[in-house]
Specification:
This protein is an alpha/beta fold. It is about 40% helix and about 15% strand. The chain is built from ten helices and six strands. The protein has a six-stranded mixed sheet, with helices on both faces. Helix 5 packs across helix 6. The longest helix has 18 residues. About 40% of the residues are buried.
């Protein structure tokens, strides 16, 4: 019986998730906060997305389904990737839950100015000291500060953001085949990807966005849940240099994630 249960788990269908950050945009280039607001892909952003699609084609990566956030920069990136990977006919399902973090009244503002403001409000000697603390924090100190300092009181906190992303991820999982192995493309955003990674393994990445048009690869099955395979430049390869799994964060645990 035990042997049969082990085999059942080993043979469970697995879903490979190719989690892609959109290509470079005008706001990315100009250093402006880009949450729910949007800006077009730059020529470099389009080229980077096309290059990624060609790399996928060279590795014979084929998707059973494609998803993106509803932001134009994510949808456009997904289209370019599919056009260059040999699947231009694959429909793209847009999900609001996969949108970037909402910065409230700070949307579209200079990211440097926001970080300087937070450093002053939180008593750090300079922006560099604030960023060092934020990058290596045990929770998302940026989201905490933005949600508290936002004069419009509409910015998300970490719990709300992760909960929304989790709804989006499991919508994707529910839409994909569950009777066989499958592969799915998801084009989303920098803070979205970092938040997902931190919820699975808090030691997997610092609090910073992965590069534009990079692949972060996850694997899901009903027994193990979500696992990290490769991050950013390692996303098209099997990641072997990822830090060991650390205790899961309180926020992630409260939303149903478990250590693997």
């Amino acid at each position: 019986m035990i042997r049969g249960l082990r085999k059942q788990k080993e043979d469970a269908p697995k879903l490979e998730i190719y989690l892609v950050r959109h290509g470079q945009t005008e706001f990315n280039r100009d250093g402006r906060l880009q949450g729910w607001c949007d800006s077009p892909l730059t020529e470099a952003g389009k080229a980077g997305s096309a290059t990624l699609g060609k790399r996928m084609a060279a590795q014979n990566v084929k998707f059973d389904a494609a998803f993106s956030s509803t932001s134009g920069r994510a949808v456009d990136t997904a289209k370019i990737i599919l056009q260059n990977s040999g699947q231009p006919e694959l429909p793209i399902i847009e999900l609001e839950e996969l949108r970037e973090y909402h910065f409230g009244a700070f949307e579209g503002q200079s990211s440097d100015e926001l970080n300087q403001y937070i450093a002053e409000e939180r008593g750090y000697p300079d922006t560099a000291a604030w960023l060092e603390a934020y990058r290596n924090g045990s929770y998302n100190m940026l989201m905490s500060a933005v949600s508290q300092l936002d004069p419009a009181r509409t910015a998300e906190d970490e719990t709300d953001f992760l909960s929304r992303l989790r709804i989006g991820l499991f919508h994707v999982i529910g839409e994909c085949p569950n009777d066989r192995d499958a592969r799915v493309l998801i084009v989303t955003h920098g803070m979205s990807i970092t938040t997902i990674l931190k919820s699975i393994d808090p030691m997997s990445i610092q609090y910073r966005s992965v590069p534009n048009a990079s692949v972060t690869r996850l694997r899901y099955d009903m027994y193990k849940g979500l696992e990290i395979i490769g991050i950013a430049d390692g996303g098209l390869n099997w990641g072997k240099d990822r830090p060991p799994v650390a205790p899961i964060s309180k926020v992630a645990r409260g939303l149903g994630y478990r250590n693997r």
